[in-house]
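We modelled the chain as a single entity of 301 amino acids. Its sequence is:
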Amino acid sequence: MLEQIHFLLTLTCNYECDHCFLYCSPRSQGTFTLAQIREVLSEAKKLGSVNKVCFEGGEPLLYYPLLCNAVKEAGDMGFSVGMVTNAYMSTSVMDAELWLKPLLEAGIESITMSDDEFHAKSKNSPASRAREAAKKLGFNTGAISVQPPSVQPPGEGQEKGAPIIGGGAMFRGRAVEKLTHGLPARDWREFTECPHEELLSPQRVHVDAFGNVHICQGISMGNMWQTPLAELVRGYRAQEHPVCGPLLQGGPAELIRRYDLPHENAYVDECHACFLARKSLIEKLPLHLAPGQVYGLAENA
């Protein structure tokens, strides 16, 4: 049962991080209008099960007036509201308070800050200053910290010699291009499940300004500008979905077999294998593998 809607408020970002699985950058396009946000919120209300919305990106604070209005309207409709940000605006704790206080007044309940060496090399990062400001204002706040991948020794319960990749990066999007080199890989036939996403009955989806309803970033349930969101969610049958069906039946390996896709002999992990398999399928399944931005194919589509 769907419980959360995550808005990709914009795909534009002031950073261009190596680990970004949406390929966001200052050149990326795709930003919601207020009218589009209202349509998504209205559709979410129709479902009756959605209780939380979260505004993400890209960097949502780049469109601050839009964000403030969206937060207020979502709160007024009874949704719990959160946000994920890199807190680039936090030149000081005092200035961070100036930015965060109107969001608190608009009704936001939680803010999560991206705070790692992909975003800042110093411990006194913008996100750390923003978290201090958020705590002073009474926000519920937390941090996402992703580190460059590193090979770690097997832990308890792990097969002897099996590679363990630490750091927390998901090998999707730009991370495939930038972070997989030199990491140990496994035979493609070993990737027989999706361990990260609830494909059968998603509890949350991401929606972008192009209308794509993401089950996992880049795997679309359909386009809500063509078919209303509530109708898409109620009509979703995972086993019949051309991408989720094979993934549920046998993971990325089955997706490769099902469509007889060209493939490498080995990949770092399931996401690595799945992402490259999906990328090779885009022309065949453009409605279900979108937008091109997420696959690094176009920054405005």
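As a brief sanity check on the tokenised model: The mean pLDDT is 93. The chain has eight helices and twelve strands.
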